[in-house]
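Shikimate dehydrogenase (NADP(+))
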Amino acid sequence: MNSGRSGADSRTRLAALFGHPVGHSLSPVFQNAAFRQAGLNAVYLAFDVGPERLPAALAAVRGLDLLGANLTIPHKERAGVCLDELSRLAERTGSVNTVVNRDGRLRGETTDGSGFLRALEETAGVNPAGRRVLLLGTGGAGRALAFALAEAGAELWLVNRTAGRAERLAGELARFHPAGRINVGAFETRAALLERAGIEVLVNATSVGLKPGDPPLFAAGELPGAGLTVCDLIYHRETDLLKAAAARGLKRVDGLGMLVHQGAISFELWTGRPAPLAAMFEALSPGRVKKT
């Protein structure tokens, strides 16, 4: 296991990732690089925690005085009831991806949306204000992105396999952003929606593509030939969606930039120090990490 320093001692602080699964995660790679660069006596470890063990895992953050934790699938929408307080945005989105331990009080934050917006601007040069955005998936990460995109002034189309979840999210967004343009589309007609709604940014926030052999979200040729930026939150492999976008000559944004940027915000919340972004990205440079 990598550590933030050359070796741990009795004063080493711990930050953790809780998820199921976590074997593919790159968070320990760049977070430990950040601790080393910052000269902090801390380590970051990933723990495979099933849903039934999440309350105990979060209690351990308090009981063992961890710096905090990141949460990934399937915990982002389940963690709130186990925490002492939530940030305003985490409460609104119903999604928590960062837990901060302040003297035994656990505060839930969501950094997914901010991390995504930073990556979209940095990688593709896209500001979502006034753009028509199709968001596939309204789970924990999708909810956080939806609120961030609505706040940024995007015109949103929400699509989810379970239509009711997209409709509920649209209603919640409308309450907080009454002047926003929030629409709901059917998952089965997502390809037709690209052209019909004039979509400019396509975001996959589903788990489709996480595993090799997952059915493609779009058939060959269903993506337009120009004018679309394609984003996929999956980062540990090039998904079929991103391959299709490359074949059509479209701008692409994979999940790596969002991962690092949201992780950088988590680092700053835990430590009170600016995140060493260059070191975090360098740790994930080709040849230094293995992708499946």
